[in-house]
Amino acid sequence: MRILLADDHALFRDGMASLLGAWDHEVVGQASDGATAVTMARALRPDLVLMDVAMRGGGITATRELGATTPEVAIVMLTASEDLDDLFAALKAGARGYLLKNLESGELRSMLDAVARGEAAITPAIAARIIAELARGGQPTAEPAGARDPDRLTEREVEVLRGVVEGLRNKEIAARLHVSENTVKFHLRNILDKLHAQSRAEAAARAVREGLLPDA
Length: 216
Known about the structure:
Layout: E1 2-6, H1 10-22, E2 26-31, H2 34-44, E3 48-51, H3 59-69, E4 74-79, H4 84-93, E5 97-100, H5 105-116, E6 121-122, H6 124-136, H7 155-165, H8 170-177, H9 181-195, H10 200-209
Parallel strand pairs: 1-2, 1-3, 3-4, 4-5, 5-6
């Protein structure tokens, strides 16, 4: 993949560039702040931006700006912040993943491979935190009979979304539900459309924030 690095620590960027190069990825640019990351991403159109959260200009702000103008560019947060507010704000802004800088190199490589397949870059540990927050959030408010929103998820779509929140791949969701992978993709398209989400990660964030999985 063609990757843009956005982080305010030059030494970290250089180390990441060397590691990514060893994995046959091409680092097309490096940015030290959010505004520069936006400008470079729009000009270079990388496949992926690895974006820090806490840097001048704000990584989440930059993610939101890029999501509005260049949604085809995948953005994954690579940060030291374990704050849940940062996690959900990033996913809501359109990030396709949230990775911590203390993860092992092999796990990072696996997450990059997931992004290349069009999947979310969310480790099992982050998925567990999302599920825990969902469980702590309580039940959604009941609606009067006959007042069903046309954008409300079907039971099958809820099951597929639950798999997304848990960090499962399409193939794994298909196996769990005993359906084909194409069927899962069909439901995912409907889910993204109904939730007005740009990515699996954003859909997962909305599921947590809005209590869309009451039985989880």
